[in-house]
Design goal:
By secondary structure, the protein is α+β, with helices and mostly antiparallel strands. The chain has helices at residues 13-27, 43-51, 58-62, 86-95, 103-112, 121-131, 137-142, 144-164, 171-188, 192-195, 199-212, 217-221, 227-255, 263-269, 281-294, 297-312, 314-326, 332-335, 339-351, 383-386, 434-451; strands at residues 70-75, 78-83, 99-101, 168-170, 358-362, 366-368, 371-373, 378-381, 452-456, 464-466, 470-472, 477-482. The longest helix has 29 residues, at 227-255. The structure holds protoporphyrin IX containing FE (HEM). Protoporphyrin IX containing FE (HEM) binds at residues 101, 116-117, 128, 290-291, 294-295, 298-299, 302, 354-355, 358, 423-425, 429, 431-433, 436-437.
Length: 483
């Protein structure tokens, strides 16, 4: 059947790299003089940090935190505003007018193209409406069996490890395998590892370079056939091959009248609300690649940090385990009745937000917090800073999941003013996969936590490292013990 369908064609990776570099260059503006700027940390300190390659780092964003309502610094590649006031964060990021995604995400176009993470304006609105049906409550409930199968596969692997010896594993790798498995099954309706043994390593390589595309050096590396550019092109080509084959296969299944319940089928069948047209091959590729990349590393980091925090805080581990032990069923429907699990995940994202900064570029002069921010300048808000701001959080450094529990025992987010806690971003650009992520994370934690003690060794040496996501500095080597 696939033979009778027209071949799937995509833009080349090199074209995407060039387009993303050119898009960034177009947005750059010379520094504008004669404008009232907010104060900020000394420029010499910042530039020294950049020269020593200490940027991006948590120390870098932390030095802006004390400036209200925002800090300003002139950077080598343009001007930067870091907003620290919740109302101004709300104003800039929820209003979302006169701003587009920042330099980092523009560079990420090299991998994800112009999918809904990076697209803007009318295209973003139309495509978001086309992707949204894959994330309704009913759809997510439908992914439940796939999520549980992937969790069962992890449990079986852990059982083998425990049977064969001391039960040693690398927790971060385990969580990445699990979330990639879930994305593969729910996006494509199949076990990705079975489709191609090359997918996981290609994704890991692409993510490695993807992380580096955020660094200033990438701009130069992407111009020439550097090692980074070759690695990126080769790994994205592998992924494009797999996505192309999947599109072909799904189209054939749909033409046969099969009704698979995966996200890709929703995307293939989606029609533009204005024109009635479906997504082109290239658009489909960009949306699929976006979901594959945005949809697994973030949740893997959430789970990795959560296990570490539960290990470091055994009293809260016992507290949440009572909920798992008492639940008659642990399926998707049960997730909304697990307030303690939800609170543990919220608190883990407060202390270790997988997305630790969110940034934008102004496309016109905008007014915010009493200042004019000129066109072409960068605005950043940091989950890392705001989620750890002692003005808003009692016992700010402590892991206290009970802060998210209301007096009636339910989960609540009404504990801080708006603009203080934003693990999933804001409004029209809020994460489309938030409910999906929280469902898979709750199921994974409850199922695996009910059966296993996860004991990270040398846990005190772990520090957060900011890449595209906030990662633990080690792969969290751990021991497994049956509960
Ligand atoms: C704990 C897990 C996750 C976290 C912390 C997270 C965080 C975020 C954040 C902060 C944004 C907004 C970025 C910005 O405004 O610049 C975002 C957007 C996005 N996320 Fe997630 N995410 C997670 C899981 C997922 C999953 C599971 C998927 C898909 C299966 C996904 C897909 C997306 C997409 C497509 C966007 C772009 C939405 C748009 O602009 O319309 N994410 N995510």
């Amino acid at each position: 059947m696939t033979d009778t369908l027209p071949p799937v064609t995509f833009a080349s990776t090199l074209d995407r790299i060039t387009a993303s570099r050119e898009a960034n260059a177009r947005m750059r503006r010379p520094h504008r003089r004669g404008i009232d700027r907010p104060p900020g940390p000394p420029r010499a300190d910042i530039w020294r940090g950049i020269a020593r390659r200490e940027v991006p780092s948590l120390a870098f964003v932390e030095q802006f935190a004390a400036y209200q309502p925002m800090a300003y610094v002139r950077m080598p590649r343009g001007d930067l505003y870091v907003v620290n006031d919740p109302d101004v964060i709300w104003e800039v990021f929820v209003g979302d007018s006169g701003v587009i995604k920042g330099f980092g995400l523009q560079q990420a176009r090299a991998v994800v193209g112009d999918g809904i993470l990076t697209s803007e304006g009318d295209k973003h609105r139309r495509h978001r409406a086309m992707v949204q049906p894959a994330f309704t409550g009913r759809r997510i409930a439908g992914y439940g069996d796939d999520m549980l199968s992937a969790i069962e596969a992890t449990d079986a692997r852990w059982q083998q490890l425990a049977d064969a010896g001391p039960g040693r594993m690398e927790l971060v790798d385990e969580m990445t395998t699990l979330t990639l498995d879930i994305v593969g099954r729910t996006l494509f309706g199949t076990d990705l590892a079975a489709v191609s043994a090359e997918v996981a390593p290609a994704l890991a390589r692409a993510l490695g370079v993807f992380n580096r595309t955020m660094n200033p050096q990438w701009e130069l590396q992407s111009r020439y056939p550097s090692r980074s550019r070759r690695t990126l092109t080769e790994s994205v080509d592998v992924l494009d091959g797999v996505v192309g084959a999947m599109i072909q296969q799904k189209r054939a299944e749909l033409a046969r009248g099969d009704a698979p319940h995966d996200m890709m089928s929703v995307l293939i069948e989606a029609t533009d609300p204005q024109t009635g047209a479906g997504l082109t091959d290239n658009e489909l590729r960009d949306e699929v690649m976006t979901l594959m990349l945005a949809g697994h590393e973030t949740t893997s980091m959430l789970l990795s940090w959560t296990w570490l925090l539960l290990f470091r805080n055994p009293e809260w581990k016992r507290w949440v385990a009572q909920e798992w032990d008492a639940a008659p069923e642990l399926d998707v429907a049960a997730v909304s009745h697990l307030p303690r699990t939800r609170a543990v995940l919220a608190e883990a994202m407060r202390l270790y937000p997988p997305a630790w900064v969110i940034d934008r570029l102004t496309t016109v002069d905008i007014e915010a917090g009493g200042y004019v921010i000129p066109e072409g300048e960068a605005i950043l808000a940091s989950q890392w800073n705001m989620h750890r701001d002692a003005r808003f959080w009692p016992q700010v450094r402590s892991f206290r999941p009970d802060r998210w529990i209301a007096s009636d025992g339910g989960y609540t987010e009404k504990i801080v003013p708006r603009g203080v806690y934003f693990p999933f971003g804001f409004a029209a650009r809020k994460c489309i996969g938030d409910r999906f992520a929280l469902t898979e994370a709750a199921l994974a934690l409850a199922h695996l936590g009910r059966r296993w003690h996860v004991i990270p060794v040398a846990s005190r040496d772990v520090v957060p490292e900011p890449t595209v996501t906030l990662r633990p500095s080690t792969s969290l080597p751990s021991l497994l013990r049956r509960r």
